[in-house]
């Protein structure tokens, strides 16, 4: 995100001496400058000033990741995945956002996981790509080397590749922390069509820089009650020969990772809340790109928010039937009443998988039922991928096996995938 920030203690000129306060006439020790940059020094970057040499480790061990294997969606069928069935109350008590993720869908460009967590996560960084973590329910504090955020329902947390951070759920009497994790093998950014050639969000964009929350910082070990010299483990996800090309390592550092006294640049984590997205509407039905909020390599992220719908006198508010010729469409239903899926069994916490090559659209009766509707009260997060997605172990565990037959109900008995039957 090319929106310059400067936080904490930095020198007036980059790549020059920057020292701690000295004693008497003796100069203080140098801080250690780290460039965190994208695309080999050719894109956005930030400079971080550490108390310690950031390359230092005292131990490395294998992190056995949760199951990252995937199964092709073959034979090709649309699917309904019930994410709220993935974690029971007992499992949640011992789960954290990092090690407790269950893989729902994935391909060589992006992995979608889900976690319901009550425990603080270990320190963690993704060395493969950026992460976009959507907070479905609950609250948490996210601590990073750039600073910290308090996050809650509706927040997208964008974490650039290699950002060391951890998640600390906040106690809630209402909802546990539920997060929908989109892990890229690339960077995640606002759509290019909404940016000027210098990176500013343009006037027709559905959000602007004022809507983005930058981290509060700097954040140092002593600010959270830790010792600066506290030996700390950092969990790292990186490329390797494991399932999906993803493996894990745990590095032990001889110091606490929160040692950045200042930083500046255009690369850092930020938070955007879905309620600040200004929907683009029209007299007739608008196509999904108007709902786009972010993009990565070979995928886009969209959100469908409460909004006024089509106002032509003969408008049909729900989508027309469409074939995903070039993409798989993954819709995560967060809140509200999704008009086009009435009668399908889909509700809050559901995912619909509409694979490329299969035409899909409203359930039977939904088109007529939408006529005259002036407003949709719905909230959903959609990921469209331009390569086929396969099912992770989490997705296979909560597939209802009935969704493919939902357009056939009322036409007689229809066999559904997996041997289940839906009676009309």
TrEMBL record:
Xref: Pfam families: HgmA_C
Cofactor: Fe cation
Domain spans labelled Homogentisate 1,2-dioxygenase C-terminal: 299-392
InterPro entries named in the record: HgmA_C (IPR046451), Homogentis_dOase (IPR005708), RmlC-like_jellyroll (IPR014710), RmlC_Cupin_sf (IPR011051)
Bias-annotated ranges (Basic residues): 12-23
Stretches the record annotates as Disordered: 1-26, 349-368
Gene3D superfamilies per UniProt: Jelly Rolls
SUPFAM superfamilies registered for this protein in UniProt: RmlC-like cupins (SSF51182)
PANTHER family on file: HOMOGENTISATE 1,2-DIOXYGENASE (PTHR11056:SF0)
Similarity annotation: Belongs to the homogentisate dioxygenase family.
The protein, known as: Homogentisate 1,2-dioxygenase
Organism name: Terrabacter terrigena
């Amino acid at each position: 995100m090319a929106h310059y920030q400067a936080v904490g203690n930095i020198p007036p000129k980059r790549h020059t001496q920057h020292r701690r306060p000295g004693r008497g006439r003796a100069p203080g020790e140098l801080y250690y400058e780290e460039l965190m940059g994208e695309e080999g020094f050719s894109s956005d970057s930030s400079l971080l000033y550490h108390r310690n040499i950031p390359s230092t480790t005292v131990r490395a061990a294998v992190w056995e990741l949760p199951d990252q294997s995937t199964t092709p969606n073959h034979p090709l069928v649309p699917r309904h995945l019930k994410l709220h069935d993935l974690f029971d109350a007992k499992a949640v008590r011992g789960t954290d956002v990092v090690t407790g993720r269950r893989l729902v869908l994935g391909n060589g460009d992006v992995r979608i996981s889900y976690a319901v967590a009550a425990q603080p996560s270990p320190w963690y960084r993704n060395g493969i790509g950026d992460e976009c973590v959507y907070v479905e329910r609950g609250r948490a504090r996210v601590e990073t080397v750039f600073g910290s955020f308090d996050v809650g329902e509706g927040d997208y947390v964008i974490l650039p590749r290699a950002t060391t951070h951890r998640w600390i759920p906040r106690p809630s009497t209402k909802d546990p922390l539920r997060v929908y994790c989109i892990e890229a093998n690339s960077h995640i950014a606002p759509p290019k069509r909404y940016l000027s050639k210098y990176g500013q969000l343009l006037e027709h964009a559905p959000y602007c820089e004022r809507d983005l929350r930058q981290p509060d910082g700097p954040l140092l070990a002593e600010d959270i009650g830790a010792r600066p010299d506290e030996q700390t483990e950092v969990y790292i996800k990186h490329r390797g020969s494991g399932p999906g090309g993803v493996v894990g390592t745990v590095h032990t550092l001889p110091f606490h990772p929160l040692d950045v006294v200042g930083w500046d640049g255009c690369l850092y984590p930020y938070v955007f809340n879905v309620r600040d997205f200004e929907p683009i509407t029209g007299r007739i039905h608008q196509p999904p790109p108007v709902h786009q909020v972010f993009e990565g390599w070979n995928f886009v992220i969209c959100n469908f928010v409460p909004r006024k719908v089509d106002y032509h006198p003969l408008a049909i508010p729900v989508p027309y039937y469409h074939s995903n010729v070039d993409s798989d469409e993954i819709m995560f239903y967060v809140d509200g009443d999704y008009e086009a899926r009435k009668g399908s069994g889909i509700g809050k916490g559901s995912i619909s998988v509409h694979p490329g090559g299969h035409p899909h659209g409203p359930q039977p009766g939904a088109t007529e039922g939408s006529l005259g509707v002036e407003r949709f009260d719905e909230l959903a997060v959609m990921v469209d991928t331009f390569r086929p997605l396969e099912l992770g172990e989490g997705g296979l565990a909560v597939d209802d096996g009935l969704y493919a037959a939902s357009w056939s109900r009322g036409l007689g008995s229809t066999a559904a995938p997996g041997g289940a039957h839906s009676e009309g």
